[in-house]
Amino acid sequence: LTGQQVDPNDVEYDGNQYLEQHHKGGQRMKRAIALALVAAIAAMLAATAVARPTAATGSDAQQAVSCKSTLKIAIVTPLTGGAGFLGNAQLSWAKYAVKTLQSKYGLKVRLVTGDTPVEQGPAPAQALAQKYVADKAVVAVIGPATSGAVAATSKTYFQAGLAHISPSATRTSLTQGAAKEATSAFFRVVGGDYIQGPSDAKYMVDKLKVTKVVIIDFQEPYSVGLADAAQAYLKSKNVTVIRESTSVKTTDFSSLVTKVPNDAQIVFFPTQQPEDAQTFGQQLLEQGKRAKVFGGDGSNSPEKFKLAGSYVSNFAPDISGFAYNKALIDGWKKDNPKSSLESFGPPTYGAVQVAMNAIKRACTAGNGQIKDRRDVVRNVKRIVVKNWILGGDFRFSTKTNDPLNARFYIFQIQSNGSYKLVG
Amino acid sequence: VDTFIQLTLNGLTLGSVYALIALGYSLVYGILKLLNFAQGEVYMMGAFMGYFTLVALGGAASPAVPVAFVLVLMFLVAGLSAGVLGVAIERFAYRPLRDAPRIAPLITALGMSFFLQSTALLLFSADVRNMDTSELISPSTGIHVGPLDISLVRILVIVSAAFLMVALARFVAQTKLGKAMRAVAYDREAAEMMGIDVDRTIVAAFFIGSVLAGAAGVMVGLVFDRVWHLMGFTAGLKAFTAAVVGGIGNIPGAMLGGLLIGLAEAFTAGYISTTFQNLIVFGLLIVVMLVRPTGLLGSPAIEKV
């Protein structure tokens, strides 16, 4: 369809000049409309092609990528905004992993970074997904870091056959349940909230001997999921549970604190904003309550949440507890002299390790080239890592794309603000 | 009863902050008939200044000078810089539009609010800063008698807010400048003819209103432990509601409105649910507007012919 198509109405007109001019005007108008229509249709087609990458590329055999060329691994994580501390910790470990593991796997890899500030919702993650899908040199993605970003982009990555391996997305429904939010090209190297909620609750019952617990959720999927899971476990153990709910935007918790009974031992507070946990803990003290705050991985930030006596759970332990990690930590510290070892970064090293291992296997199977990025996806699940950075051996579960035997670790905040592993 | 007392204290803390910001709205509205929507952002800037003062003095964990001195300096620096900011806003954004149709300065005020928000984002980034008040003043210090639990920080906030409000009321009632303010508010042209320097009076109103907002910023930083670039929006909106509920342009009205809104929020959170806080607050606004369109203490507008 072009703009020069013959219009059936476009016939010679044998009238006076006025009419002729008038008619020419009409012709011009029709041509303009036709052109506009063509442009609109073209734009729509282009938009669909962008929205569904496979529609344009699906039938074409993907161009093979030589394993001798520089391959790209993309990392998708919040580098700026409120969760920037998390993303930058992850990036430092991803850089270190790529730098040190290239020679081990005989690959040339370049790390490309994508920033997804949590304040901007899923849009930045979606734009980045389009970009990495279109770039054939990108053979694996580390991330997205947050569950929301995974849910928003997993289909796009799946259609292009691009493996995306998250070191920190813990929402249960990504990999489990009837309505999975992520596709089979998504993997995570840390356990999900299906472990975190019950294991936090189990710790409260077994170690802290709780009889009354207040649980607060923030009316968004992460905290509601965790709160529900913890509540179910506590109730099964006959613990009195008082459930409260507040908006994620709340900054003054004092009236919620007033409602915490004096004999409650723990307030389970699965926020994603560590400063909320800090404020809540302070307000508990202000009102003379004896309950302690118990946060999930979302409040794990030694810089922002440092109220002594509080508890925090996370999917990674203190990795310096495993002797075989010493060289690894020393090397990372040399590259990041100003950073301190915390919990969010190290799983990223593991994710890169899994990705590069899978790329290597795909290369070997493809005789030195990756014919289809799906070959990487197929290999991810077969990866086994001995002396895993988070302890023990790593392998995926046979049923889901979650790690087998994943667990959560519980820390108590000490009076000097440090996080001590207690369970 | 225990819960009631505690919720009242929670509400008074929040209410004092709203009242201080609301006073700025009312002062300016009384004199210029202008809704200065940038008031919330002035409060946010004040909070940042307080935070930076604290950091400059060595931070909450290891302040270089005694705690009381740190607090005084925080209030001074935040109040003064907010005051200067308020005066600058008046000079560059509102004065050129003083004789323009009323919609023009209103839109400018909204623009100013976004401008300041974005400036804070550019200058200070989107990071949430924590004042770490608990390290400066232990949250458990305070009065803990029977059902009453009130921390030192909250006592400080309520007392200093009350002090500022009384000082303002006396200033407006008794000083020459205060009288000039009332005169300009009543009839600007007549006041000018009587030899009152209208420009100076307006500048004074902006300065005082902004100082109060800056002080409120420090208070919120201390009580809720955090300072960030978007904090002015909701607080500004609530304070505006407080000013309108109390009767905009009326100084005791702004104080009453602020306390009412604060208490309404605390009781809603305590007895119903935090989810409905805003519903109740703005519902209260609608009810007051229906029953008393001029606000609780507002006087009916006099049609000047």
Write the layout of secondary structure elements.
The complex is a heterodimer of chains A (423) and B (305).
Chain A: H1 17-51, H2 53-57, E1 65-66, E2 71-77, H3 84-105, E3 109-115, H4 123-134, E4 138-142, H5 147-159, E5 163-166, E6 186-188, H6 193-206, E7 212-217, H7 221-236, E8 240-245, H8 254-258, E9 266-268, H9 274-286, E10 292-295, E11 311-314, H10 326-335, H11 346-365, E12 369-370, H12 374-380, E13 384-385, E14 394-395, E15 409-413, E16 419-421
Parallel strand pairs in A: 2-3, 2-4, 4-5, 5-6, 7-8, 7-9, 9-10, 10-11
Antiparallel strand pairs in A: 1-12, 11-15, 13-14, 15-16
Chain B: H1 2-32, H2 39-56, H3 67-94, H4 103-124, E1 129-130, H5 133-136, E2 142-145, E3 148-151, H6 152-174, H7 176-186, H8 188-193, H9 198-224, E4 226-227, H10 231-246, H11 251-272, H12 277-291
Antiparallel strand pairs in B: 1-4, 2-3
Q: Could you give the order of the helices and strands of chain A?
A: HHEEHEHEHEEHEHEHEHEEHHEHEEEE
The first-to-last residue Cα distance of chain B is: 54 Å
Count of discrete alpha- or pi-helical segments spanning 4 or more residues of chain B? 12
- Proportion of residues in extended strands of chain A: 15-25%
- What global shape of chain B is seen? globular
Please tell me about this protein's structure:
The complex is a heterodimer of chains A (423) and B (305). Chain A is built from twelve helices and 16 strands. By secondary structure, chain A is of the alpha/beta class. The N terminus of chain A is likely disordered. Chain B is mainly alpha-helical and 305 residues long. In chain B, the strands form two sheets. A two-stranded antiparallel ribbon of chain B has the order 1-4. In chain B, strands 2-3 form a two-stranded antiparallel ribbon. In chain B, α6 packs across α7. The model of chain B has no long low-confidence stretch (mean pLDDT 92). Chains A and B meet through α8 and α9 of A and α1, β3 and α11 of B.
